[in-house]
Amino acid sequence: MKINVDSDIRKAKTISSKFYHSSKIYRKLKKLFDRSWQFIGDTNLLKTNNAHPGILLEGMVDEPYILTKDNENIRCLSNVCTHRGNIVCNDSCKTKTLVCGYHGRQFEIDGKMKFMPEFDDVADFPSKDDNLPEIEMESWKNLIFIINDKKCDLSELIGPMAERLDWLPVNEFKYKPKLSRKYKVNANWALYCDNYLEGFHIPFVHKDLNKELEYEDYFTQGIENIVLQIGIGKDGENTFDLPENHQDYGKDVAAYYFFLFPNMMFNFYPWGLSINIVKPKSPEYTEIEYFTYVWKEELMGKGAGGDLDKVELEDGEIVESVQKGVKSNSYDRGRYSPKREIGVHHFHSLLQKYYK
């Protein structure tokens, strides 16, 4: 399917409803996600242990990786044994040697092949091909991102976010596992993103949140591979204490919402940061993983980010309703509100650019 979204939002129609439920379209998305940076956690994953395994976007990319730490050097390696393809490390641990449980192949913590039993007569062994390959990894502050098929530096993606929030001490935020969670949504991943990318629905779907924000002042801008939304707080609500030289100084900013194409949401509040990773599982099923980082405990539960669980459940309910509607034979493409759906239009334009 060819995506055809006019660059002029006043003339444009939304992407075809088939994008939200076609198995054929869904299968072609792997290439897009292979080439996208993905947030996987922060450097404290290796605070106690020096090896931490995971799977990059399980259900879509399905790339096993392992973060390792040697002194202060953190790297990301393939977690697939170079002998017969077994997963090397299954749990976070503290170790000097990574050992495959299938045939005993051993690797140094930096991925170099160390020892292999019963291989005395193998010619040209070991070679560099017997080492665990590195997976591209970069970080912003103390937040770690990896990519399976690197086509750009991380800075090319997060640049506008990093520039606007360079004053914020994100590396001092504390990860709170008990406040982090996963949600299951019976809807297409892109439909969930559409919903996130506009404040148009806030007065209708999030009535409590609407009491915290000035709807008329809600700001949306598409910047390269990012969509920025700024929520302005009403009088008396918690807002950021911005530096005097900041471009938003003088505004009562209650929330910065950054969407990083194609599936990451970084939500900054005066109390801290909520990161939502949208994980496609099937054409009509998505899991949302929330990572909660607290900056100022005393502000928790207040303002625009005060009750994220309630907002998430409201979003899930409306998105699941829309998923049923987009499968109707009577619906294919809609139109955009030039005032309220700038972010959705920008997202669809990026899909048009990168979905091949």
Q: Assign a percent range to the helix content.
A: 10-25%
Sheet having the most strands: 8 strands, antiparallel
Average pLDDT:
93
Structural class: alpha+beta
Distance between the termini: 9 Å
Q: Cα-atom Rg, whole angstroms?
A: 22 Å
Unreliable stretches, pLDDT < 50, 5 or more residues?
none
Series of H and E elements: HHEEEEEEEEEHEEHHHEEEEEEHH
**Total of helices:** 8
Question: What is the element layout, followed by pairings?
Answer:
Elements: H1 23-27, H2 30-34, E1 38-42, E2 51-56, E3 63-70, E4 73-78, E5 97-99, E6 106-108, E7 113-115, E8 136-140, E9 143-147, H3 154-164, E10 174-175, E11 181-185, H4 189-196, H5 202-205, H6 207-210, E12 219-223, E13 226-232, E14 253-260, E15 264-269, E16 272-282, E17 285-294, H7 308-326, H8 342-354
Antiparallel strand pairs: 1-9, 2-3, 3-4, 5-6, 6-7, 8-9, 10-17, 11-17, 12-13, 13-14, 14-15, 15-16, 16-17
